[in-house]
Amino acid sequence: MALSRKLVQQRSSVFGSRSMSWWRSVEPAPKDPILGVTEAFLADPSPDKVNVGVGAYRDDNGKPVVLQCVREAERRIAGNLNMEYLPMGGSVKMVEETLKLAYGENSEHIKDNRIAAVQALSGTGACRLFADFQKRFRPESQIYIPVPTWANHHNIWRDAHVPQKTFHYYHPETKGLDFAGLVDDIKNAPNGSFFLLHACAHNPTGVDPSEEQWKEISKLIKEKGHFPFFDMAYQGFASGDPERDAKAIRIFLEDGHLIGIAQSYAKNMGLYGQRVGCLSVLCEDEKQAVAVKSQLQMLARPMYSNPPVHGALVVSTILGDQELKTLWLKEVKGMADRIIGMRTALRENLEKVGSPLSWEHVTNQIGMFCYSGMTPEQVDRLTNEFHIYMTRNGRISMAGVTTGNVGYLANAIHEVTKST
């Protein structure tokens, strides 16, 4: 009896020590470069602090905004529906309305049922779902990602185990598009490669190709048999016109491409926390679209099973009602116009304080972000000396710029760049 008790004690000791060591090798993850900026800003007691790192819209008082159309949609749906699961593919109505925004109200592709589409967890979830689809059905393929891009793009395709390569996009000297480098990389990529493209308001640079450049990009990608995948996080939010912001996609459709699109309502409806998005893949015919959609749903099943219902109801209510849709179009234009106005104000203030540098790129770029051209060291000075917070790549969130802080921001930028 004593011997058996001793064996039990020995075993429990062994298993206890093993369980204690399971996670000893886990190191703290590095802080997200964007979310870390907000943490540092919140910890700063200075009354003069300014946060131009946040990737969310703010009004001219620096406050978060809930659109009137969203509030009205919430009022209409409150208490009217149960809390049952959505299908794995999500809200059919929301997906239908979302496809109209991207492909066009009278799209032949929609009428022919050639688009495989599912509701996704905002743009991030749509990208991840597509990356897993790419890995499963084109395991030999790789993804070409622009330099620079939204940092999470690299994480998404890395965790889906898709090999990554990069292509030239931003030209540091001109602070514009490196079109020649981009063209060369498309031509030199192995036939049948996947290319990640920002449909509008490129993040983080705010640099978009012109219409003529998009046409050339489309032509070259078709010649090489590449697959274009668009991340469209800012439709309507860039120019204030959803049709204009979808121009790149329409060009590719006119050229006969099969494409993929990740769409999000975080920015253009302010539904950041609702995680409402859509992944769509244009297929050769209806039969192929049915097969692709079924596989997208199978990929979603072990990830999250079903997408959330509330945000999808808000979106479908707004886009399915002409009065609310008209109000949304007015409000999204108001957000875009405020950001465009802040670009003009920042440039004017920089020129007024006598900056010897050219700031044309501030107004030439478009969308939420301005790629300022400042070095990491200059950004550090802005933070340490002026309590201005942004990511160290010099990306300014124009949503954080207000009539109240634009003068202070311009003076600080001038101070840290005047000796450049």
UniProtKB/TrEMBL annotation:
Keywords: Aminotransferase, Pyridoxal phosphate, Transferase. One of its GO terms (cellular component) is mitochondrion. It is an enzyme of class 2 (transferase). Residues 48-413 form the Aminotransferase class I/classII large domain. GO terms for molecular function: L-aspartate:2-oxoglutarate aminotransferase activity; pyridoxal phosphate binding. Coiled coil: none annotated. It comes from the Eukaryota. InterPro entries: Aminotransferase_I/II_large, Asp_trans, NHTrfase_class1_PyrdxlP-BS, PyrdxlP-dep_Trfase, PyrdxlP-dep_Trfase_major, PyrdxlP-dep_Trfase_small. GO terms for biological process: amino acid metabolic process. It catalyses: L-aspartate + 2-oxoglutarate = oxaloacetate + L-glutamate. Belongs to the class-I pyridoxal-phosphate-dependent aminotransferase family. In eukaryotes there are cytoplasmic, mitochondrial and chloroplastic isozymes. This is Aspartate aminotransferase.
